[in-house]
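Milestone M4 deliverable, item 7.
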Amino acid sequence: MSTVAYITTRGLFGRRRALLLLPLPLLLVGLALLVRAYDVPAAEWGAPVLVGLGLAVLLPVTSLIVGTGVLGSEVDDGTIVHILTKPMPRRDIILAKLGVAVLVTAVTCAVPLFIAGWLASSWKLGAGLAVGAAVGACAYSAFFLLLSLLTRRPVLLGLVYILIWEGLLGRFVSGTRVLSIEQYVLTITDKVAPTDLLTGNVSLPVAIVMSVLITVGCITLYQHYTLIILIAYSNFLLVGTNRR
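Output delivered:
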């Protein structure tokens, strides 16, 4: 498992895609510092920055970039064949890749959200946002990794989910909030650090249960597809090599 995690991490950070992880965290912290420097009340900027930018954009977009990248990196650099030749259970491959995606996403999002929450209110709000980011990283990463296994256009479908389902329907159609990871994160953050700056629209039990179900359900599903898809990718690489 450690070998797969190492190869996945090296492939992820050895590509230009990793550079896409920097702008949003820097923008979030920069905006929080700017409005704090001008003594703008947190009630005026807290929700747009922490929720509108942090939880609604930074967290899902980072999860999408990383979640779809932990598999694509091996396809691009050819190390997928090395992974296939190692005698290990498919469960180890899945958990290693998901673990890398969750860890990278959680760190990339939790740190700037903690800083922004601290600047907006207190360290307790920052800690609540960090906890929410960690939970969201698990659910988002599992979901987007599943998309990368099931379709050739995971980024496009991921953006549809983020922009249409969560960004549009999740705000205006109450029934869709039960299937919105963003709403789970909001509720968990609000319960950890109650504040007027953000409010969850689903109950805490629903947020916890659905987050667990999405994560475990996705793991269960792509355990059945991973080796088949990896073998197909490796055959594609071998055919391309032979043609050269």
